[in-house]
Amino acid sequence: MFHSVDAWIGWYVYWVALGVLSSVGLGAGLHTFVLFLGPHIARVTLMAHECTSMAFAVRGSHAFQCLDTAAVAAEPAPFGAIMRKVIAESLCWGAGTAIGELPPYFIARAASAAGKSDAEYRRLQRKATAGGSLSLKDRALLSVYRLLRRFGFAGILVFAAIPNPLFDLAGITCGHFKVPFWTFFGATFIGKSMIKATIQTSVVITAFSKETIAMVLSFLQHVSPWAHDLAERVLRQQAAAFGSSHLPQTSVKSMSLLGSVWNACVTIMLIYFAISTLESFAHSYLAEVRSWGQQQLAKVTRPIKHDRNLPPSQS
Asked: Which residue, 77, 236, 290, 301, is most buried by CB atoms nearer than 10 A?
């Protein structure tokens, strides 16, 4: 029994950790929804339509294996049943993304309490007062900064619920203006876990449903028969891979085209994540070196300026 409880806890902690990795870091987070949660939801959806029931496990040694009695059902698995099968993992992942937004909030709050402004906030402040031409990205960042400062909980909730890359500044902005912790975290948790994750899960379930796939294949049949044949072959290979326990060993060992493409995408994104992390550390170190150099220069030039301001000695 204790082993089952440990496995259950470990399963959901795993999804929370993936959520944290998705949002930690300013724009350098690992996109774990695309890499892990999205494929998991898609696999559950395809398996549900393959088994025409939800009588299969999603973890453990017998995961994604249709029961023999599942083939009796004739109707495809409904949307609600699939959602109930994956909603816990989705909510845990969303909770992790909310937790991952806390470090910038606490750092900016501590800097503000110490009378120091965050480097990102200083950059935005300089751009706001410069009056020069700003890029589209900079204008969007400034808009986020102003809206979060003005609308508080409602603004945080809206930005957290809508998938966008600009929410990285929410923790910095809220921390700098000392927004109460539960206001920031509550709005972020509701927006990311209960709203955003649920919307993304619904989109993936709908996209990989039997009806949607049939509609896409029908469209490809009229537009490009070659693309239709390729898509149909890939889908069949994936369906066979999901039900590999019922296939010969030679079929299990074969790798589909989609699997190869997906592995390449995962590798590229992991490399990008590593490079982005190194660049972030390099920029932080460079900023510290420049600040130290300016302080040392100020110490050297201060006595010189003081000597110049002294009146000449009278003989």
From this structure: 77
